[in-house]
Amino acid sequence: MSELSHVDAEGRARMVDVSAKADTARIAVAGGELRTTAAVVALVRADDMPKADVLATARLAGIAGAKKTSELIPLCHQLALSSVKVEFGFTESAITIEATAKTTGPTGVEMEALTAVAVAGLTLHDMVKAVDPAAELNGVRLLSKEGGKRGHWTRAEQPTDTGTTSHPEPHSEPGAHALSPRSDAGGTAVVVVASTGAAAGTRTDTTGPRLVSWLRDLGYTVRGPLVYADADIADGLADALRTSPDLVVTTGGTGASPTDRTPEATAAVLDRELPGVAEAIRQRGTATFPLAALSRGIAGLAGRSVVVNLPGSPGGVKDGIAVLTPLLAHLLAQVAGGGAHENDRAGHPPGRKFGNESAHA
Predict the structure, then answer these.
(1) Whole-model pTM above 0.70?
(2) What's the pLDDT score for residue 354?
């Protein structure tokens, strides 16, 4: 479309007439983050801020904001929302926000998802400003949408930073924040954390942010980390696979504890297993840490999405990264239709690049 839909032939603002459009299921996912200090992140996770439950308040505000979008954005249609979900994640110096809005109707729910992120983020700012008045809401953006005649759309790249931050960057790994530039090459990936403690905010997960940083360094557009309690990991996988990403990496829930359910939930969504990948990760771990043999993680294909389970420990994630980095380009190329098996780029389908091709350079 080369014309602005909300401007008529005379250049005047208008509400688009959607009466002739068919009702279809519509889904939109938006994201953003509140950059703050590591101390504030720790306080929010521990529910130890001077005001009430920060995340619960921000979540309700985001949902309420989505429901009032047509009152806030003058040319938006009133929609009957069937679902609004607002989720939060953490890096060392940021609280990430993701909102999913759903409806069935003649027009999309992008603005509702974006408004949910913005209002949730502003509420977070209000809740933490007594401790950190310099907190910044950044990177509010549409991540994906489904429905209507254009079908599925996923953001092809991450936005660059909108300005300098007043906070120091304590994270030593490049790409730890969603606002860093990315290369032109890359696929799509989702990181899922299985941790009852992290989902409840009683423990700090470092494995999810580490995986996000690694994948962004390789050039992937990454969603997450999505944090789910062990009992809800099947929902986490369904959420991750909803946008049909090239790659899903999970961390946690692969042990022998009765609550460790990640392998079973993963097996339920796989069409084909890749046993050699999981075994290579275990073998690398057991070479230095015998208890790594207790991991029951698996790997395989759910449609055209590669799914890999990693343990929930920093060492297990480090081993997984070491094994996956030289494999991903060739593996994803094969899944996408490349047929060559030589250890070079012949297996990459024409016209498609992956962010980790540099691993073979």
Answers:
(1) no
(2) 39
